Amino acid sequence: MSDQNEAVNGYLQIVATVREYVEEQIQLGFAELIEPEEESEFAQLDIEQVRDEAMGCERCELHQGRNTVVFGVGSEEADLMFVGEAPGAEEDAQGVPFVGRAGQLLTRIIEAMEMKREDVYIANVIKCRPPGNRNPKPIEIESCEPFLLRQIELIKPKVICALGTFAAQTLLGTKQSISSLRGRFHDYHGCKLMATYHPAYLLRNPNGKRDVWEDMQKVMAELNS
Ligand code: URA
Ligand code: URA
């Protein structure tokens, strides 16, 4: 037998062994071994149940310093969802995302898009305020992300708008700069994701508003398509 035939025979033997194993598993009722279901952690929960879960969350150290969990606000039927970084002092006090100075600018951006805050959904990657507004740690992102993932699964927005470096890099799993990520749609679990500058950045750099407005016009065109 040639080396090649030997290799082919070896391969066929492996295929036969795997097939036998899989068929046995099906007969035993382990059909999911063939098509593993990637279920999110809160896949069984509706939005109120996820909110309840978040409100009592003590998965990371951020629960120690928070006043309130800032879960998210807006329409659960929203076509557009904004995702920011984490609550600041004002958000932590009120339990509502984007109500401080940056939030008021976001509200004006939404109104310029001829929508109201109630028409969209607004949330953050991190639901509790990091002390002194420090950057969230990887373990905090990992602990908190299942809440956002389930919010997105339930709301099923047509477009997600990631606000600023942190949200864009976290959702897209990249270290690319916000200036290279913004301005075009990315795929996020089958959903269109636009990255743009954070409104807090715009407060310090008003020149960025033109870029953000361009990005929002692309979002509007996508929502109307
Ligand atoms: N900045 C954010 O990223 N989120 C808020 O909710 C407020 C400010
Ligand atoms: N730097 C940031 O952190 N966010 C922005 O949106 C822009 C620059």
Give a structural overview.
- By secondary structure, the chain is of the alpha/beta class.
- It has 2 domains: 1-34; 47-224, Uracil-DNA Glycosylase, subunit E, CATH 3.40.470.
- 46% of the residues lie in helices and 12% in strands.
- It is built from 9 helices and 6 strands; from the N terminus they run ααββααβαβααββαα.
- The protein has a 6-stranded mixed β-sheet, with helices on both faces.
- α2 (47-55) packs antiparallel against α5.
- The longest helix has 25 residues, at 3-27.
- The chain is globular and about 75 Å long.
- The model has no long low-confidence stretch (mean pLDDT 93).
- Bound molecules: uracil (2 copies).
- One uracil binds at residues 84-88, 91, 97-98, 100, 102-103, 124, 200.
Secondary structure topology:
Blueprint: H1 3-27, H2 47-55, E1 73-74, E2 80-84, H3 89-94, H4 101-112, E3 121-124, H5 138-155, E4 159-163, H6 164-172, H7 178-181, E5 185-188, E6 191-196, H8 199-204, H9 209-223
Parallel strand pairs: 2-3, 2-4, 4-6
Antiparallel strand pairs: 1-3, 5-6
Helix pairs in contact: 2-5
Bound molecules: uracil (URA) (2 copies).
Residues 164-165, 178, 197-198, 201 line the site of one uracil.
